[in-house]
Design brief:
mainly alpha; single chain; 0% strand; 3 helices; 110 residues
């Protein structure tokens, strides 16, 4: 009988494939950030919320399923995925020049 925390080769392969899929998706999202129109603050907030949710789920998983790391590893990969996108969006937003404010002091022509 196999211990609960031992990984089979199928589980390792599945985890590696899942990680590669997340890396590919994160790369595509991060590379497309300069093409996003407007303010990406809402995008940053959403990714931060999902990072926090995934982190809480990971910690709960580690607390309630002590000794079984399989699901916690998947949740950890999701934390890294959402966190990397949030970090990239934050960095991009800080490097991007601020959009000019509309001039409201000029009289409107009618």
């Amino acid at each position: 009988m196999e211990p609960m925390q031992a990984f089979t080769s199928y589980e390792l392969a599945g985890t590696a494939i899942f990680a590669l899929i997340l890396v590919f998706i994160a790369y595509r999202i991060i590379r497309s950030m300069p093409k996003m129109a407007g303010n990406i603050a809402a995008f940053r907030r959403r990714t931060l919320v999902w990072t926090q949710v995934a982190l809480v789920l990971t910690v709960l998983q580690l607390n309630f399923k002590a000794g079984d790391w399989r699901f916690a590893i998947i949740l950890g990969l999701i934390v890294l995925f959402t966190g990397s996108i949030w970090w990239a969006a934050r960095s991009y937003d800080l490097r991007r020049p601020a959009e000019p404010e509309p001039d409201t002091s000029a009289p409107k022509s009618e």
